[in-house]
Specification:
Blueprint (H helix, E strand, L loop, with lengths): L8 H4 L4 H13 L35 E4 H5 L6 H5 L5 E3 L15 E3 L10 E4 L2 E2 L18 E8 L3 H4 L6 E7 L5 E7 L8 E10 L1 E9 L3 E11 L3 E12 L19 E14 L3 E15 L6 E15 L5 E21 L6 E9 L2 E13 L5 E22 L2 E24 L4 E23 L7 E4 L3 E6 L2 E9 L2 E12 L3 H5 L2 E3 L2 E4 L7 E20 L13 E25 L18 E25 L2 E16 L17 E10 L4 E10 L2 E2 L7 E2 L2 E13 L2 E8 L7 E4 L5 E3 L4 E9 L1
Parallel strand pairs: 4-7, 27-30
Antiparallel strand pairs: 1-6, 2-3, 4-5, 6-7, 8-9, 10-11, 10-40, 11-12, 12-13, 13-14, 14-15, 15-16, 16-17, 16-18, 17-19, 18-19, 19-20, 20-21, 21-22, 21-23, 21-24, 24-25, 25-28, 26-27, 28-29, 29-30, 30-31, 31-32, 32-33, 33-36, 34-35, 36-37, 37-40, 38-39
Length: about 750
């Protein structure tokens, strides 16, 4: 029996075209779905990221993890980044999410790609989410309570999304501005008395608010609310967070200068959606954010702010064609300070003051999908992105003042167009193939130094305009010879241009100072993967229909075991790495003389390197109350050849562990109580490509309990790093270890309506 589909024109304004596409897809596939206050896209039964159109995960030729927004709220971790880290193929450059971690250090790594440089494209509702200047990810601005779903596609999506998708794509979808369709007693006449025997459909507002507190003075309030009107829907989302933090240096090495690294941020977003005519939905979004953070000593502080606006148009789905487009603009500002600390850790000396980093970017994209009766489809589109920014810094501190200033930056633009075909073949076989062509250019590159004492200009360099084109093809096959067996193989080529920060902005971190490199070349990756997945069922199938609602929950087996394995290989050309610099008679090029024990690096292109390995997982659900999984990743990341530094050949790529493991379990102890636990084991890795700074193993265990007080209220309590294990996140050349969060207990109340 087909599920109920809402077709009332008055309600279509409250569902995004993407949701309506999914509803149409569910209808075509005979899949049950839910339409309610949190939207149809709560389901994890489709994935959009690889092709920019909805697919069933069982029909995609790429590895894809789809995390339901409600499920992400039940992970014990204090952040969405920590929740995603439960999948070992997903990683963070800081190794572990931490309350005091500055956002400028938060990069995504997928299968070890992006440990240095930007290895993954991160999107929020189809718009680039990486910082335009530096490439880092502003995790604090991801609306965890207002999150509908997350899709992680390691090793795929480059043809659909282009520049930056070197190691894959991560995409967040927020809950759409929507009301909830409910039945209420009606009347025979407009002003007549209510008659319980009659019902009428109305749309009411929805929302949720979460208040949370925890260790280290952690406090957070997050909310979202949608209110339907006669013209459309207004949605408001927001978050305010603060923590006193903890000292970043390991306890055995701390000195009087080390203090807690606090962090405070807030953001507010408003969205308006309405029908334009009868077949187009307009969505307008504006967002603003502010953030401040400490980095473990009195001098080292930072802040950032940003503003964002977008206008999106999308069609209602038809039997054969749907489309969507968006135009967006954003600007931002950030500042940071960096110091050197003496061996006794009793005093610090300023090294650099980045007092401003203004950036502006804008872009647009359009994509359409043509669907055929047999299930085959073609998607095509184009997008453009432009960014301009500067890093403005003072350095060379001497005799109580900075002696030199630096202004460095430029502008980048990229235009790309793609076409992808998803073709059904015989015998349960499907093929996907397509190509993308990007044209990029960089202009206005400059580094201008100033003598702050005399006011002179001792050095000024302008870099020549650069441009180029990149071809990003993909091909894949997925075969389902039986309902419970899926096998897939794919290959793609991806590219990533260095960010403006990598080209022009020197920076410091943990007694390691890094010089930018205006001559960095384009990173390219040719990747292949092959995998298989089999589902064993045992017990009788069950289904559940909720009374007085327009949905049935998905049909599920009372017991199942899913076994999966994947092998992958990445052949990287000119991946961004780092090389230790030997000081000359005048010191380092930008920072000048450095204290003993400090190391200066420069970003370079590694001519050729390889990242290859395998993943395996087992998911077991003996019944609807309990489920668990075990996930393992083996990764061999090796530098093959570097012409300017032959000694790097054979070294392990910085930031990549050879093996990682994860175990997680969910137990619904009663109708009201749910308990979740997870454990991640991270293997050793090196901080630098020369393999001189090694970090040992780390084990992170989290546990949480969630108690439903009523239909609209939930209490929760969670503990991150339950065993209080020491998590080394970085290491300086003078032997100082920097650590992730100690045990963090946090809990609160979640209310919904």
């Amino acid at each position: 029996m087909k599920p109920y589909v809402v077709v009332e024109s008055s309600f279509r304004a409250f569902l995004t075209p993407g949701e309506l596409q999914w509803i149409k897809l569910y209808w075509d596939l005979g899949i049950d779905f839910a339409v309610g206050g949190l939207g149809a896209n709560r389901s994890s039964l489709v994935v959009m990221t690889p092709l920019r159109e909805p697919q069933s995960p069982t029909r995609t030729a790429f590895t894809a993890y789809v995390v339901d927004g409600k499920e992400s709220n039940e992970w014990p971790s204090d952040s969405i980044a920590g929740a995603l880290s439960s999948y070992p193929e997903f990683g963070l450059s800081e190794r572990a999410d931490s309350p005091g971690s500055p956002p400028q250090r938060d990069f995504v790594t997928l299968r070890g790609m992006g440990a240095v440089g930007v290895g993954a494209r991160v999107l929020l509702d189809g718009v680039p989410f990486n910082d335009p200047f530096g490439g880092w990810v502003p995790w604090a601005e991801v609306p965890r309570d207002g999150l509908a779903r997350v899709e992680v596609v390691p090793g795929g999506g480059a043809t659909a999304w282009g520049q930056g998708a070197l190691g894959g794509v991560v995409q967040f979808f927020t809950l759409p501005p929507s009301g909830e369709l409910v039945l209420k007693p009606g009347s025979l006449t407009e002003n007549g008395p209510l008659d319980p025997a009659l019902t009428k459909q109305i749309v009411v507002g929805t929302g949720q608010v979460t208040a949370e507190a925890g260790s280290f003075g952690t406090r957070e309030v997050e909310f979202f609310a949608s209110q339907p009107t006669s013209e459309g829907v207004l949605q408001v989302l927001g978050n305010t967070y603060s923590t006193d933090g903890y000292p970043l240096v390991s306890p055995q090495q701390r000195g009087p200068i080390d203090d807690a690294a606090g962090n405070r941020h807030e953001w507010l977003e408003a969205r308006w959606r309405q029908l334009v005519g009868k077949k187009i939905v307009l969505t307008v979004t504006v967002r603003g954010s502010e953030e401040t953070h400490g980095e473990g000593t009195p001098y080292q502080q930072g802040s950032s702010s940003g503003r964002f606006a977008s206008v999106a148009l999308a069609s209602h789905p038809s039997a054969d064609f749907t489309w969507n487009g968006v135009v967006y603009v954003q600007d931002g500002q950030s500042s940071d300070t960096f110091s050197s600390v003496n061996a006794a850790r009793t005093a610090e000396t300023p090294v650099m003051k980045q007092f401003a980093e203004p950036e502006t970017s804008f872009g647009a994209s359009w994509s359409g999908a043509w669907r055929e009766a047999g299930g085959s489809s073609t998607s095509a589109g184009a997008d453009y992105h432009y960014v301009r920014g500067d890093a403005r810094e003072d350095f060379a501190f001497d005799d109580g003042a900075f002696a030199r200033g630096l202004v460095a930056g430029g502008e980048q633009g990229d235009f790309g167009a793609f076409v992808l075909r998803d073709q059904g073949l015989a015998w349960g076989l499907r093929a996907v193939f397509g190509a993308r062509l990007d044209a990029w250019d960089e202009a206005g590159g400059h580094q201008r130094e100033t003598d702050l004492i005399s006011g002179g200009l001792p050095d000024s360099v302008r870099f020549a305009t650069q441009s180029g084109t990149e071809f990003s093809p993909t091909i894949g096959l997925v075969w389902r010879p039986a309902e419970d067996l899926r096998m897939h193989v794919n290959g793609q080529q991806a590219f990533s241009r260095p960010t403006l920060g990598e080209l022009y902005q020197p920076y410091g971190q943990d007694a390691i100072v890094t010089e930018a490199n205006p001559r960095l070349g384009t990173e390219r990756n040719t990747s292949v993967e092959a995998g298989a997945e089999y589902t064993f069922h045992f017990g009788a199938d069950q289904s559940k229909k909720s009374p007085n609602t327009y949905y049935r929950s998905p049909i599920f087996a009372s017991g199942k075991l899913v076994v999966a394995a994947t092998v992958f290989s990445n052949d990287l050309r000119d991946a961004i790495g780092n090389l230790n610099l030997a000081p000359g008679t005048g010191g380092y090029p930008v920072f000048g003389a450095l204290p003993a024990g400090y190391v200066a690096q420069q970003l370079i292109n590694l001519d050729r390197s390889r990242i290859q390995g395998a993943t395996g997982s087992v998911q077991w659900s003996p019944n609807s109350a309990f489920s668990t999984y075990v996930f393992v990743v083996f990764n061999d990341a090796t530098i093959d050849h570097v012409g300017i530094a032959p000694g790097l050949a054979g070294k392990q790529v910085a930031g990549v562990s050879r093996q990682s493991y994860a175990v997680a379990a969910r137990w619904r102890a009663s109708e009201k109580l749910t308990i979740r636990a997870s454990m991640r084991a991270l293997g050793p890795k090196f901080v630098d490509d020369e393999n001189t700074l090694r970090l040992g193993e780390a084990v992170i265990a989290d546990v949480g309990a969630y108690y439903s007080v009523s239909k609209h209220a939930e209490l929760f309590l969670a503990v991150d790093n339950f065993a209080n294990d020491r998590i080394d996140t970085s290491r300086s050349a003078n032997g100082v270890f920097y650590i992730g969060s100690p045990r963090l207990a946090h809990g609160g109340l979640r209310l919904s309506w």
